[in-house]
Amino acid sequence: MLDISELFWQSSLEDLKKGYVYHEPTEAFVCLICGKTSANGVIYPHDGQLYEARKYMDIHIRESHQSVFKALLNLDKKITGLTEHQKTILELFYDNYSDKEVAKALGAGSTSTVRNHRFTLRERQKQAKVFLAIMELLGEKTPR
Predict the structure, then answer these.
(1) For a tag site, which of 1, 60, 90, 127 has the least CB within 10 Å?
(2) 17-33 per-position pLDDT tens digit
(3) Which residues contact 8 (CB under 8 A, 6 or more apart)?
């Protein structure tokens, strides 16, 4: 049995964004959200079509989890570091709401408040990128 938690935390940023990894020992694509697998080399039927394993995993994620974005967004605050308010705002941004529509959906604030939230989240993204680089450099340093 695969340890999904271990696969999740060992995954690259690109794999996290896809929502699955290729697990060489089992020669299968593994959903990082629920652990479902699709074996490489197997053709999977879906809605009258046949799909190779990698494409089938994309279909699984869309149908079972809506999207990788929504699945990651719904992880616990200890994992995402996001408040419920931030999660709501991010989901509205993801769903292409305008700043005015976001303000209306939240029932409070103005478009300038929403723009400020957008700016703050972009700043956090920049900080996270630098933090990741720092941690990767630390991990590469050989202990003395």
Answers:
(1) 1
(2) 999 999 999 999 999 99
(3) 16, 32
